[in-house]
Amino acid sequence: MRFHPFSSVIRTLYTLSSLSTFSRTRAFQVSPRITTLRSMPSIPILSALFGSSSTNTEKMSFPVEKSNEEWRAVLSPQQFRVLRQQGTEAPGSGTYDKHYPDKGVYTCAGCDAPLYTADTKFKSGCGWPAYFDSIPGAVKRNEDSSMGMTRTEIVCANCGGHLGHVFKGEGFPTPTDERHCVNSVSLKFAPEDKVGSKA
Ligand SMILES: [Zn+2]
């Protein structure tokens, strides 16, 4: 059991937290709450152990909520790693990196919600699909302080699936001067314009 060496730490924290019952499973689920108790000396260990405190996505709620098991059942391993575990595909490797149709919609690979239209996609040369804007309300933003820097993560507003990051002020000649840098694996392309439909 991978977490065994830390169980005594968790048990101590639970005692300090005045919770009378303990199980490893439960400790895992409530770990984000534990990490907010800043006075506890063992918190950096817990934070590293559970490893997901770099994003606030899991504290948000979304219209489509599934357990990891349910997501694994409908996503490929690569889709699960990117959409549900904030993974990143290798630059230049994605299906939609050099994909420039005249019309159509890029939808969420997790829940099919329309996210980006073809006419907002531009050539950034960065190795991932780049859009200067999303369909209004289709993506949500989070501060992401992983990898030793602060970036703005973008997720599907319908299911919370990780899409990539948004960068501003890079000087691209687009209407917004923003670059939504999205993993191809987080997307599906629909040639017909589905905006406004339930998709
Ligand atoms: Zn989605």
UniProtKB/TrEMBL annotation:
Source species: Coniochaeta ligniaria NRRL 30616
SUPFAM superfamilies registered for this protein in UniProt: Mss4-like (SSF51316)
Name of the protein described by the UniProt record: Peptide-methionine (R)-S-oxide reductase
InterPro entries: Met_Sox_Rdtase_MsrB, Met_Sox_Rdtase_MsrB_dom, Mss4-like_sf
Domain MsrB residues, every copy: 68-192
Cofactor needs: Zn(2+)
Cofactor binding mode and count: Binds 1 zinc ion per subunit.
Reactions it catalyzes: L-methionyl-[protein] + [thioredoxin]-disulfide + H2O = L-methionyl-(R)-S-oxide-[protein] + [thioredoxin]-dithiol
GO MF terms held by the record: metal ion binding; peptide-methionine (R)-S-oxide reductase activity
GO BP term, pick one: response to oxidative stress
PROSITE patterns, per database record: MSRB
Family listed: Belongs to the MsrB Met sulfoxide reductase family.
Keywords (A to Z) from UniProt: Metal-binding, Oxidoreductase, Zinc
Enzyme Commission no: 1.8.4.12
Sections of the chain in a coiled coil: none
A Pfam family reported for this protein in Swiss-Prot or TrEMBL: SelR
NCBIfam families, per database record: peptide-methionine (R)-S-oxide reductase MsrB
